[in-house]
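Handout, section 3.2

Students often ask what a structure token actually looks like in practice. Rather than define it abstractly, here is a full record for Tetratricopeptide repeat protein. The first block is the sequence as you would receive it.
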Amino acid sequence: MRHVVGMLCIGSTVLLSACGDKAGNADVERSFDSVNVIDESNMNDIMLTVADPNEAVNYFRRALSEEPERVDFLRGLAKSLIRAKRNTEAVAAWKQVIAHPEVNNDDRVDYADALIRTGDWTKAEEQLDTIPPTYETFKRYRLEAMVADSNQEWKNADSFYETAVGLTTKPASVLNNWGYSKLTRGDFAEAERLFTEAITYDDSLFTAKNNLCLARAAQRNYELPVIPMSQVERAQLLHTLGLGAVKQGDVAIGKGLLREAVDTHPQHFEAAVRSLRALEANVTN
């Protein structure tokens, strides 16, 4: 009897041990699954930030060939195509994201952005119109402002630009866009103010510096603005002011500014030389 009880105990121990092994294996598998998810998530982030854009495109295409319904891979491909400046392909990729059951408002904004990059303003506006007004992000309002600009809906554009500026700590690019909008409307003083403000947030933004000089030249103010600039930038901005002066009919001032641009540039400044030669040839003729 004692022998039978002993055998039962041993059997129970073996059984429990086997159950324990199975439970342990399940835990290990779950643990490995978690690690894989974390690694995959990190890899996606790396591909969308620091990786070469075209390598990222290949990575997400390979991932989609194995799991074509994964919305995160679809998004990754679309975003990588934008980073690679393959905008037409990006539009097609975003269409797939939009058709996915897990689509969200961020996706619709990104799709609108891709459409704008390909010049399809009508479809971009249609896409933005599908997003509820309660969804308020910097990117959404920046795009809304650009669409309103394209439609010459100036009051709406100003309202959207103002909202966008209030939703970011880095408003330089949107202030530059807003300033350019004012420039195209002929509101040169306000454009100058907005470009100057953009530069205070990002003094490396050359587009804003160049636009600032365009706004000043339109007001017949040909003095270089007091802003941070390299020697090369100084030459380029003098070139812009010179062309602006010629456009205003102040030819002598324009020639002087173009000569100064040529003299200022540390290398040969071909664009300024061509402008000066063309101007002098016209004056001679």
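Discussion prompt for tutorial groups: The chain has 14 helices and no strands. How would you have guessed this from the sequence alone?
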